[in-house]
Design brief:
heterodimer, A: 494 residues, mainly beta, Neuraminidase, Immunoglobulin-like, nine-stranded antiparallel beta sheet, five-stranded mixed beta sheet, 34 strands, globular, B: 685 residues, alpha+beta, Cytochrome Bc1 Complex, Chain D, domain 2, six-stranded antiparallel beta sheet, five-stranded antiparallel beta sheet, 15 strands
Amino acid sequence: MKAVAATFLSAAALAGAPSYEIVDILTASTVADTRAKDWKPGDGLALEVSGMDWTADGKLALSIRKGEVWLLDGVLAPKPDRVTYQLFASGLHEPLGLLRDGKDLLVTQRTETTRLRDTNGDGVADEYLTAGAGWNVSGSYHGYAYGPKRDGLGQLWVTLNVDMGDHSDNRAPWRGWGGVLGEGGRFIPMVAGLRSPCGLGANLAGDMFCVDQQGTWIPTTPIYHLRAGAFFLNPEGIASEKLPASPVRLSAKLPEKRPYPEALKALPEMRAPAVWMPYNKMGRSGTDLAVCAAGGRFGPFDGQMFVAEFTDAKVSRVFLEKVEGEYQGACFPFVGGFAAGIVRLSFAPDGSLMVGMTSRGWSSLGTKAYGLQRLRYTGVVPFAIKEMKARPDGFELTFTKPVDKVRAADVASYRMTSHTYLYSGAYGSEEIQVAPNAIVSAQVAADGLGVRLKVDGLREHHVHELHADGLRSAGGEALDHADAYYTLNRLPKN
Amino acid sequence: MILRAAILLAGAALVAEPLVTGFERFHAATPTAEGGRLLYNELGCVNCHGGVTGLPAPRGPALATVTQRVRSEWLRRFVADPAAVHPGAVMPQVLARSDARTLDAVEHYLASLGPKAEPKGPAKIMHVNGGRGGELFNTMGCVACHAPGQDFVPPEGAPKAAEFTHRSVGLGDLKAKHSLDSLGAFILDPLKVRTDGRMPKVAMERQDAIDIAGYLLAFRGSDGRLDEPVVPVVADKTLALAGRQAVLAARCAACHDLPEDVAAKPVALGRIDGGCLDADHVRGPRYALAEPQRAALKLFLARKGEAAAPKLAAELTLHALNCVACHERDGQGGPDAARKPYFQGDHNLGDTGRYPPPLTGVGGKLRPEWLAKVMAGGNRVRPYLKTRMPQYGASTAELAKLLGVADARAVLKFAGGDDTAGRKLLGTQGGAGCITCHRWGDRPSLGIQGPDISNIASRLQEGWLKEYLINPAGYRPGTLMPSFWPGGKSFNPSILGGDTDKQIAAIYKFAESANGEPEGFPRNRHGEFEIVPKDRPVVQRAFLDGVGVRAILVGFPTGVHLAYDGDQGGPGLAWKGRFFDAYLTWFSRFPTFEKPLGERVVAWPKPVGRFLGYRLDADGNPTFLNEQGGVKVEETFEGVAGGLRRIVTWTPVPGFTPAIHHPPELAPTEGPAAAGRRVFTYLWK
């Protein structure tokens, strides 16, 4: 979908007008000195956003990598030119996640999750209480910690990077693991096999998901459904399986340099990602996810997941379904052109999506160093593939608007290939076992809002890549994004 | 032998057959004429029997100085039976094994060749550090060919014997052969003695060479003057004359550089069987060949007249010089599983940060002038590799040219190139952000320190650069380098119309023009982020030496500052003067263990409780909340003139006294105590 900067919004009412607009709150090109003598709130603040949530009175609470938490008021104004910034907490160690808990804020710093409390009501935190700890921190730069995020049971989840570089110690407790905070804030490990699980979030059913990043052992950005006992991809921190608290014990030798479907068979504890986001085609480094519950105020995508991406500075969309009791689904391109590498997403109370960014330390196509932007739905319904569901003999697509039935019924309007990846310690994987899938038939629903594709050669644990370039809406519009990528872990039986 | 048992691990050459590592690794399994060509050259067959192998000439060590740098006893034993004294030696046995008189004469003849030996005192080696030498030997690349030391355990653990896929080049009984001084001199510049580069020269300081020698000789102590020097042989004229006859008869000059009057005439090769290839051969040199070696030589001899095509000549030269010990080429070679752990470097760059680059297509990658300089010892672009690329002397004189022909690719010349766009593309302000990971000349990158890319125009061929930028993993699987032109499609349609060719040409052009640096390098901010507590205490968490990863630093306007242990709950360090520079903690991707900025740092003994958090009072003073043995213990710190006040409070429980420690070098004064409350003042006088 095309997005447009706020200044061009006047064109929105016209036909073909953009469905989403990006509104700048604060972006900047350089890391400024917030302690300079002439510093003014908002004008030199290094807003390297690392965590976001909303206070009970509608302020945006936001952590930045420097180690501060700010309360921003006025970010949802149509023209956000009167945003106020209030410093709530400082002195933290690179917090990378923030969650409101009643009146308090929880932030996860490198070494612990901390409860920030304002006990005297002056708008500034005066208590910094340890609310979660128990993982090793070696001092390696890559030893990041993320979260907390709350699942449907009320459990608070935290995920931990594997170490890299100087001081690395991945044999020490829980690097590359995710878990929940138990009594007294004790870290209870739940899942292993993570590498750089930068973003977490629960879906509407309350199940917890996390996005990891392409790298060693990880062919391309995956989205995992987190649950006790699962091992995902990266074995670099697996040594902790020997600790008494571990719910994971690998029962077989690590199947290195094997196609992923074979690796899965060889290692019973390995759980397949619900979705693979193919490298380059869907961005490169996934960083966060947010599930939409905007009641239509963010367009026709309620219940779907929006995934942030760093290198290409864009947001993608994910549709999930349960097949044989396991999540799987499709990802779709959504909106690009953000100012910097996106690290955090948060749906605002008004249904718009806040996008927090910082490019420091990596490379992003976003031209700014950091910032905060807001993605707002203009009310113009986009023509998009809304859902892509697996069927025993193909896929079912649903659309946001009725399609041109003649084109939709023509198998030549579609093209599909499938691929999987090589499971190995290398940094990322090429797509392997690439093969075309013939579209045998396309049956359009009576209301024009769906099409049933019969497809040859479906393969489990392969990503099925659809290009529907020939589709048009009944009104003649092309799809905003004609490609979709379905991770077919299991073929439904019926 | 004792030495080897003490310091050398499995994989040392203990088999008598001559070791040509390149043959053993790549040609022994299935004997071929190509493998035979390599052996024919490397075993020196070519030196007697002639022919053009297309490979750099193998030469024996310089003999004019040998009696001054090698112990006499060893020399005689070695000449008598090279393979027995030095398993794997390529030198054949040329003299009778037990003719002591001839050996004596040969030694005197060799002694007569050199400059007159000065009566030498002990070498003036004041200091030798074998431990340091071991570190160097086992990490700078020596163990790519030689066996690693058993006493050195690489960070990933020692390899298993089974992981050595081929023999290592043995060192023989070094103690019997060398003194500290002579071995150090050899290690410092082997090309002086072994001009054919089969033992290459690694750039190092003299002290490095002495330390490595000390390690290999298992030298005890650190005073090199206590070493037993090599005693040079003083030539006896009569004996030397007899020796000359023996040297002439044994045709030593075929392989060694010797005076004209002992020159060895070529020996015509009438047949391709028997002779030196026979195990029980008596006339002429005797090689203890293994069966695959013999088979390969025979295959080659049948086709000896055929010249080697450049591709083959390049390949075999890389095998002869054992470049493939460190470098992969076309999926072959590189260190085996056993040696990989000894290749160290910068973890942050992944495998590319520790292993030397592949040589696949290198002649079509590097510009020929650049490649020639690399071989001559210059143009080192990967300072993060601990292994050091050595020099091979005259043996690589033709190699760059040969690789250029072998790997030739269709020539691509960028037409023009917009260097302004190139500057933008390389930078972080809307470009590909190359400088995020790559150095630019002497400018460190913004993140991980990948190779310098300011030199690409003088270093890389255009065609290779384009292919590489479109698909970096195609050249080096597992590289961290992403593509910004995946599938040939540019990441940025707004620069030069998104034209991939134009964009890559622009980058090349900008590097060539040397016209400034890419956009996005920050000013050096170090020092600009010093936190100066003015009106109230300032709290900042950081990684701090002496406290750990959970240090909570508190700077007080009164000038004495605290770092609290946020793990076990207790004061860690305190110091006077300046507080803390937060640049790395706030704005680096790589925060590291910091140090206090001030002076007179004191340290408390490690605390014993559990940290629960802290609160700040209206003036910003912290109260740390801890638990000791189930009892909550709080301690407040306040700044006082020239010091700190520490107020410890707890709910009195019968039988409980909190553990309260002080820095050994700083006794506090204690104020009046009350039930569940003690107050201490620490002053920096």
